[in-house]
Amino acid sequence: MLQRVSKMGFSKELTYSARRDLEHCSQTGFFLTVIVMQLFTLVTHRTSRESLLQHGMRNYALTGSLLCSLILALMYCYIPILNIVLHTCPLKFIWCIIALPFGVFMVAYDETRNFIIRHSSENSWIARETY
C-alpha cells in the first residue's frame, strides 16, 4: 500500500498519520485555549464595578466549577483512552500555557476599566459604553 506523503516547509515530508497526529495536537491546543479563556472571562465578568481583589472568590460553587472544568479539560488531554475516543493528544506544558498571556491581558483590561468606572461619574462615557 502506498503511503501518502505531504511536503512541508524546509523539505520535511509528513505521512498521512503524522499529519493526523499534528492535527489532533493542534485541535487539543485550541480546545485548551478556549477553556482557559472562558475561565478568565468568567472570573473577570463576575463583578461590574468592584475590583477582583476587593471582591475575592467568595462564591465557592463558582470556584468549584472553575476547578472542575479545568480538571475535565486536562483529563481529556492526558488520559490515554480519552485521547483515542476524542482524538486528542497529550500536550507539552509550554503549549498549555499559550493562552495565559491573553487571559492576564483580559484581567488587566477589566481591572483598569473597573477602576476608571469607579472613579468617574455615573453618566460618564466610559461607564455608559462599557458597563
From TrEMBL:
Membrane topology qualifier: Multi-pass membrane protein
Keywords: Cell membrane, Membrane, Transmembrane, Transmembrane helix
A family per Pfam: Cation_ATPase_C
Sequence intervals crossing the membrane: 29-48, 60-86, 92-109
One cellular component (GO) term of this entry: plasma membrane
Gene3D superfamilies in alphabetical order: Calcium-transporting ATPase, transmembrane domain
Location of this chain's protein in the cell: Cell membrane
InterPro entries according to UniProt: ATPase_P-typ_cation-transptr_C, ATPase_P-typ_TM_dom_sf, Cation_transp_ATPase_P-type
Single Gene Ontology BP annotation: intracellular sodium ion homeostasis
SUPFAM superfamilies per the UniProt record, alphabetical: Calcium ATPase, transmembrane domain M
GO molecular function, one term: P-type sodium:potassium-exchanging transporter activity
PANTHER family named in the record: SODIUM/POTASSIUM-TRANSPORTING ATPASE SUBUNIT ALPHA (PTHR43294), SODIUM_POTASSIUM-TRANSPORTING ATPASE SUBUNIT ALPHA (PTHR43294:SF13)
Name of this protein: Cation-transporting P-type ATPase C-terminal domain-containing protein
